């Protein structure tokens, strides 16, 4: 059956320039990245926090995904990848024009509709990662305003500068294969700055904040890990050899990082921490992201060892010694798992980048750009290697300055409209105070006592059969 609109000729639905295999892979990769957020991080956030914050934490992630989607097709995609108006920004415009959607994307052999979808899920997960630093105390109305403002005035500038062919850092040859700068360093810095503006959780929550379901946390973490196949495998914009290399390097680095973190926990704390291993998994995924398809397998393994040890050291040792880190309440340690690991990955990309693999990814013969320091030294081109390291460091400085500035401005703007932090009584209650709902509705636990009593009274008055009536005290004991 022909499903093409009546005003389209058959060849217009599949033009000569479109590669169906690449298009299918790109849509698949985008969906894998989307699953990292919904349900991946929704589940992870909802289970790793204290029980009273489970619903609020999960919903912050779900809300961010929906709002970013609307902003993305409304104006943010064109600001990130459209017509240049400044060296770091594109012209705001709607991205839903039918002819535009059918035209070839700025890169890859597939239409703009596919590229918009693929880039959308990257923008969305960035906001959700920021949420990780704010769980357990941010006013949900403030979060509702923060998300569209931040994606508009921070993410678009970073994405255009680094990923758009017209961006100033892209033209300088910055290597950010799949978002170590644009997504992870940005979210880690922004989350930390936003957390400082919002303020800490209650003293009781900071002292004791046990996960409400570690098994569900592992399920969310598993979705995050497997979804990274699309995260890094989709960025060549083709079902290519480079995509395959990026996927394999991603999993190799992640496994090495998880095991390194686990061994350090055993060595220094005497027990193999499940939460610690999950953190090591995340730092490995983040670290390999800016370099996934441009480094050799041996380099990916070395990056895994460093991503499992350096963020471990900053989190377990430096965090307790540096006053600023102790003062800011970063609920999910986003600064360590994303800012530190993303910064590390960006530096190591400049160190280990293989110019032959860069040629596969960027599709250009370039004797000046895209040469890692290791290869520059051993191939007699140290100047090119040091130049690449300089560009990587410049990119790190730019992302940090941009996100410190824009996040502070956004928080100031939001603060003039609604409080950034929940009231003290709301902080004590949690989900029920914020949403009027709770995650676990169990008698004597999730439900209030009077609710359980009313339910029993209803059963008695209606004389339902086989009802074993118990007092509310009995129900609570159970």
Automatic annotation (TrEMBL):
Q: Which protein family is it in?
A: Belongs to the ammonia transporter channel (TC 1.A.11.2) family.
The protein's name in its UniProt record:
Ammonium transporter
Indicate where this protein resides in the cell.
Answer: Cell membrane
Q: Where is the Ammonium transporter AmtB-like domain?
A: 25-440
Alphabetical list of NCBIfam families matching this protein: amt
Q: Which InterPro entries match?
A: Ammonium/urea_transptr, Ammonium_transpt, NH4_transpt_AmtB-like_dom, RhesusRHD
GO terms under biological process: response to symbiotic fungus
Q: Which GO terms describe its cellular component?
A: plasma membrane
Residues annotated as transmembrane: 24-46, 53-75, 116-135, 142-163, 175-198, 210-228, 248-270, 282-313, 333-353, 390-414
Keywords annotated in UniProt: Ammonia transport, Cell membrane, Glycoprotein, Membrane, Transmembrane, Transmembrane helix, Transport
Protein topology in the membrane: Multi-pass membrane protein
Q: Name one GO molecular function term.
A: ammonium channel activity
Tree of life domain: Eukaryota
